[in-house]
Specification:
With about 500 residues, the protein is mainly alpha-helical. It is built from 20 helices and six strands.
Length: about 500
């Protein structure tokens, strides 16, 4: 279904659909009308004797420099060229596409004073699959994502490169698209937004939801294999401390472990009075991460309904400077979510270590190996998980507290929200790999509890894994198996296997 831009009203699912899955985009007639009205106001301001920032002046520390009307289009192109100063490897195509969509959405609100053709050009590039090459480094998350958006603007005017290695000029020509000629204020309106930060946060929220549900699945599998109890996940015990995420996570674990022969076999044994924290407190950790995700989504929802530009053109004709380009809300949300996700990975790795340690695994062989000593089993898979946990600890250090002034101290406090978004994506990718290790370890440990069988839900997940990853046996190369487990997580197959048995996870 085509995503129609009306300004406000875009959803996370729509952004993901366009950015990740190539959904088509259109501009609503109502948005076009608002943009045309706003444009007329800018053209009037451009010829006024009163200087108007970004319309008839320079930018940043050069805001006091007056620019004559005939040179204002030249100023806009010069702005795009000078600000396309990013370095490093390109960011992922889905981030660029999400950024393009979100910039078009802001322009469609009719508060930026640009012609409809600017939003339509971005939309046309999205629909034709023409994705500008945007370097990874260059944004400090204030005055918007200036450098990344400038690289997108560069492709819009027929300069720079696209992700497939062609020049933007050639890519536009091949798609029967024409480069845009920028007029007054249009270059500034293309780059003065938080769209890159927001795109990364929205994509991360979608990924985090799937990852946190998967973490409940692998936690339930580990709890069973470690002869853990499901009693601590009872609803009545969550009701005495009813954090919403904790309640949801505990409910998932209780349902995942229901009707487990393994759990039933030791329900009244002495060891099951209190499990280790990595098992017993899983809902408290994963639940807190869920609540952090909810916070991130609330921030993103406000941003999706906002006009982030500077200056903005009000309906009465006033052209006013704002500070709305500051990315601090998005930087905080991305930093908080990265911290939460890192903890989900950390506690999962602790369960893996417990599964592999014969002193704490309730009778499982060392490292879940067949003929330990001759074989090492999953020993080094846990090393991999430990290395990723350590990497996530570094990545979880907040970017948003690390302001570095720019633009001759005019922009003397910045959000570093772009960096926070990049770190968040890396953390989530690492957590996916950690959960892949836990999935393989817990499934193998369940195999070793035979003839007792796990719950129907965790059995379904184990069976899904077994289509790609065999059970215990003589040592073999583990890297392809971990990658196969990762693919089951990233495609949602792990969650889907469980949900076919017990219904939707919370």
């Amino acid at each position: 279904m085509t995503v129609t831009l009306r300004g406000a009203g875009l959803t996370e699912d729509q952004v993901v659909a366009v950015a990740r899955h190539g959904e088509k985009v259109a501009l609503a007639a109502s948005a076009r009308s608002k943009m045309e009205k706003s444009r007329r106001l800018v053209e009037r301001a451009a010829t006024s004797r009163e200087p108007v920032y970004g319309v008839s002046t320079g930018f940043g520390a050069l805001a006091g420099t007056r620019v004559a009307p005939l040179r204002q289009p030249e100023l806009q192109l010069a702005l795009i060229r000078s600000h396309a100063a990013g370095v490093g490897p390109p960011v992922e195509e889905e981030v660029v596409r999400g950024t393009m969509l979100l910039r078009a959405r802001t322009l469609a609100m009719g508060l930026s004073g640009v012609r409809p053709v600017i939003a339509e050009a971005l939309i046309a590039m999205l629909n034709a699959g023409v994705t500008p090459l945007v370097p990874r480094y260059g944004s400090v998350g204030c005055s918007g994502d200036l450098a990344p958006l400038a690289h997108i603007g560069l492709a819009l005017v027929g300069e720079g490169q696209v992700v497939d290695g062609r020049t933007a000029k050639l890519a536009l020509k091949s798609a029967n698209l024409r480069p845009v000629r920028l007029e007054t204020k249009e270059g500034l309106a293309l780059i003065n937004g938080t769209d890159g930060m927001l795109a990364m946060l929205l994509l991360a929220c979608a990924d985090a939801e799937r990852i946190f549900k998967t973490a409940d699945v692998t936690a339930a599998m580990s709890a069973e294999a470690l002869l853990g109890t499901d009693r601590t996940f009872q609803e009545r015990l969550q009701d005495v401390r009813p954090h919403p995420g904790q309640v949801a996570s505990a409910a998932n674990l209780a349902r995942m472990m229901r009707d487990s022969q393994i759990v039933a076999s030791h329900r009244h044994s002495q060891h099951a009075v209190q499990d280790s924290y990595s098992v017993r407190c899983s809902p408290q950790v994963a639940g807190a991460a869920r609540d952090t995700l909810d916070f991130g989504r609330r921030v993103a929802a406000v941003e999706l309904g906002s006009a982030v530009d500077n200056p903005i053109v009000l309906e009465n004709g006033d052209v006013e400077s704002t500070g709305n380009f500051h990315g601090e809300p998005l930087a905080f949300a991305s930093d908080f979510l990265a911290i939460a996700a890192a903890e989900v990975g950390s506690i999962a790795e602790r369960r893996v270590d417990r599964l592999l340690d014969p002193h704490r695994s309730q009778g499982l062989p060392p490292f879940l190996a067949e003929e330990p000593g001759v074989n090492s089993g999953l020993m080094v898979a846990q090393y991999t998980a430990a290395a990723l946990v350590a990497e996530n600890r570094r990545l979880a250090a907040p970017a948003s507290v690390d302001s570095v002034p720019t633009s001759g101290m005019q922009e003397d406090h910045v959000s570093m929200g772009w960096g926070a978004g990049l770190k968040l994506r890396s953390v989530l990718d690492n957590v996916t790999s950690i959960l892949a290790v836990e999935l393989c370890a817990a499934a193998r440990a369940q195999d070793m509890r035979r003839p007792l069988e796990p719950s129907p839900a965790t059995l379904a997940v184990r069976n899904a894994l077994r289509t790609l990853v065999p059970g215990a046996g003589p040592d073999r190369v583990l890297a392809p198996e971990l990658e196969a487990a990762r693919s089951l997580i990233t495609t949602g197959a792990v969650v889907e296997a469980a949900e076919r048995v017990i219904g939707p996870l919370r």
